[in-house]
Here is the input.
Amino acid sequence: MTDFINLYETYLLEVKHSSANTVASYIRDLRQFDKYVSDNLDCSLDEVTPEQATVYFAWLTNSGKSSATVTRSLASIKGFYSYLVSNGSVEANPVRTIHLAKVEKKLPQILTGHEVELLLSQPKCTDPKGFRDKAMLELLYATGIRVSELISLDVDSVNIPAGFIRCASGGKSRMIPLYPAAVRAIQTYLTQIRPSMIADPTETALFVNLGGERMSRQGFWKIIKHYQQTANIQKDITPHTLRHSFAAHLLENGADLKSIQEMLGHSDISSTQIYAQIVKQNLKSVYNKFHPKA
Here is the structure.
């Protein structure tokens, strides 16, 4: 069934245009399920029964997997079998009728305006690394793009005179404006810093590591964790925290959900509506804290 998993991966990427991170999670779930079936059941994936599949999800739970992980795994496997049914590779989906208890979704954590300013002020523009890090953090908060999109940007993805970036992801592209401070930070990095950092004059990557090659996800993760510590911010900041903060702060200041959806690159408005819940929660918190009769 390995060939079927590979075909499904291609289908998700090229037909469904799912993000690389989403596809990686689905395929990881499927390979884990495939290994379980191979190690514990006397059958292959196309022969799994609903009873055997139910035992598998119980095994995941008993192995210490979180409810969210088990729920995602079920979704991954359901999608895989639906694909196999649609192309005639199997007759029935063995997990179609399996339902797990709903997981209560936690609202994403966001930074306050003060915390954002504190974080953005951490890179010191005294060496190439400081200028580069400043430009990366400013761009991330200015646009709300994903870290995978950030490190995929090329030099020609940025239009400095017009003040926007072109972000391509999942076969689609979108234009996102930049605020003036972000434009200045990127322009300084591009004109004064990047030329001396790149290892190869033909390098197209906008942001490069100290070796002169395209920045990696892991490399940027370390950068943002470092500045969280130097800023002494107690919240657990990830690259996605700035994405969430970007959306919530826009909404707080009057932006409409449709515009935010377009800038975030959400295919479904329901993914964007979670920020309305965050804003309402924050307003209630402020009311309870400061109203004299609350």
